[in-house]
User: What shape does this take?
Amino acid sequence: MLALLQVTQGGTQFIYQGQELGLKNFPRTWGIEEYKDVASQNYWNKILAKRINESGGAEVDMSDVLADFAKKARDHARVPMQWSDSPNAGFTTGTPWMRVNEDYEIWNADNQVKDETSVRAFWQRLLKIRKDNIILIAGDFQELLHDHERIFAFVRRLGDQFALVALNFGNDDAFVQLDSLPLPWSSLQLEIGNYRNEGDDTITDGTIEMKGFEGRLYLSR
Assistant: This one.
């Protein structure tokens, strides 16, 4: 779904190492010693010193800081690239500067290259669709359903062509009602989605029912 969001926006596309494989952050169980980033280390030391001072030298709890690091520290994008299920994820035969993420035996480039249903294959399809449809690069942007709590939907328009992108950021199913904008919705055909295949779905009454974390791209024909 997030790949759909990125590729259907205007601007230059950047796909950083591991993003095209859907690689995750390293585990919350890893301690501060696994973080090499200077900013993270400096922040840890600053908060640790502050809390020790406030506690009068007693042992302090830093689990909240680690939990925060587990979500957004920069080191998650700096672990060795997971090329294969071989030692050190195929990144090196030596000793890498950082520990390899523990899921490398399953989540690696070699496995995904062989799998037509992989995250990597989905990215490939998305990028080809973008290259083949200038509307996704140069089309005007119009947001729909601004007040919806879970659905982010928008239209891209260029000349007489238009595209619809609908993304459900919630875990539960949701209905998308499109009749607020007078467009020929029935002319749209599903181009790609993370649940449905190309051409599986059309919009007949201006309503879409979406699964949790589902994303779809429709193009006019």
Q: What stands out?
A: Strands lie at 140-144, 151-158, 161-168, 174-177, 188-193, 207-210, 215-220. The chain has a mean pLDDT of 91. The radius of gyration is 22 Å. The longest strand covers residues 151-158.
